[in-house]
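Protocol step 6 of 9: fold each sequence in the batch and record its structure tokens directly after the sequence line. For illustration, a two-sequence batch is reproduced in full.

Sequence one:
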Amino acid sequence: MASTLSLITANEPPAAGVGDRRRSPDEAQGRARLRLLLLTVGLGIGGTEEQIKELALRLDRRRYDVTVCALKGRGVIANELIAQGVPVVLLEGKAKGDARVLFRLYRLIQTLRPDIVHAFLGQANLGAALVGRLLAEPIVVWSYRDLDVWRKGLHWMLDRWAVRRVAAVTCCSDSVRRYVSQHMRLPPERITTIHNGVDRARFRAPSPMGRAQLGLRDHLPVVGTVCRLDEPKKGLAVLLRAMRLSADRGDAPAWQLLIVGEGPAREGLERLSASLGLAERVVFAGPRRDVAAVLPLMDLFVCPSLYEGFGIAIVEAMMAGLPVVASSVGGIMEIVRSGDTGLLVPPGDPAALAEAIQEVLGHPDKAAWFGRQGRQSAEAAFSVETMVERHGALYESLVEAAGPCRVMQQEKR
């Protein structure tokens, strides 16, 4: 097993020891811990990966024995989990459709014998369902995280076939839930919405940074966004064109733009910025793990996505007390109440986006109101504690529904 699996934990144990779990005090008293495998595609920077990390770290360790597995790649989140002592398994897939990964996943689940496999994102969902069919042991949960408009008929046909082995499906927003229900033809009771959660404490401290550290000017308002640079989905070209429209208005306040994140569209966006004559007022900051320190440098947060499953960066901005302007699409409409916690604009409309940005920047009292209301709303609706609690309740209900045989199986371990 050590030759094909890369098991990485804080102490770097051999891969053959994956399934070696010592009995906890709860097990010694007859209450077995639930073995939970959180399965995803990769463990780089991203909203889904952050939620997996929070689950792995915050679920009650007296009740849950958590392992995290990625089909390919290591990434920043993997390193952070390892540093916190969470077992991480990398299956080292080389490309989409790498059949060896399925074989490695089969061997891992056979060795680990998890009670629950909770898969996140398409490839991981299918892998978990296929292996679950072969082993007929773990409870399998799927999670859909976005409005995957690229999915075609064949993708949904495969999912509809594989989902028959799945005990529950979770979605990160009601928008995604409706989308999945429509394409998967599942009854509503099979799908559960669990909104993403954010640790509010991270966004309460003042920033130790100054604007100059990111190449920003002190005398101009900062409009910012945090996202993967993935076009056309994220609408960043629309944002740059909105900035050009604002600059062409003689009566509008000038502003600078901060784009935090990395992705395949970066070079094209930099070229567009230059061609629009905006290069001197646009800062591409790259990927950062200190977003909580960067957000206070902004005066306004903008999310111009053309489609979005949730929008966790918006929640983080609201918890930091920032006013928000965002597109009226998908899960964003479950986060932002237009006119109360921010402004919503039609997607793909540079003129409407420019107008909304100017409306907020030109009215400081309104910006402050949006910031206060947004923080209260985000903290009440999207706390990490609620997200973890709801996952725990789902897992417990699934184990209970599996019946006495499942309980006996746990107690024999």
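Sequence two, same batch, same settings:
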Amino acid sequence: MMAVTPAHLPRVPYDRAAAVAYAHRWAYRRNPAYYDYEKLGGDCTNFASQCLYAGTGIMNYTPTYGWYYIDANNKSPSWTGVEYFRNFVTRNKVNPGPVGELSDMDSVELGDFAQLRFQGREAFSHTPIIVEIGEPRTLDTILVAAHTYDADYRPLSSYTVDELRFLHILGAYPPNIIEF
């Protein structure tokens, strides 16, 4: 029997165009299907998760450690939390839902995510989606959409940050891919 490893698992492709189209549609508005967490610390990662879901169509309903949204009070920490979002996406090796990796600026694509640690802050606290990449590739030519600091086509260079990282989305694992 062959061991199940991430390299052997089928992945659903990430529909980058769908994620970016969703970002443009809702950058300055709120989709009524989702709660607006603006008054509870910010809505940026909720918006990032909505965009990612628009491009994958797969959630992971594992309590606490999954990546899902049912309603305002029934969602995973990774749906709305910057660090939890990064952890779920980059550490998901075999479970349903999106999978990705930390990346550099030269490897990002449309629909990937930036995470920002603002000056004077100890932790990363903002997750915009990349909606346009110009050449030459610089922080001036990578444009993002976001909530909390609502934006569309905003250059990454316009943020005052101490640290920046990128999350490259590889696709998503479908539910029930491993049968025992």
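Proceed to step 7 once all outputs are recorded. Observation for sequence two: Strands lie at 69-71, 74-75, 97-103, 113-118, 129-133, 142-146, 151-155, 161-173.
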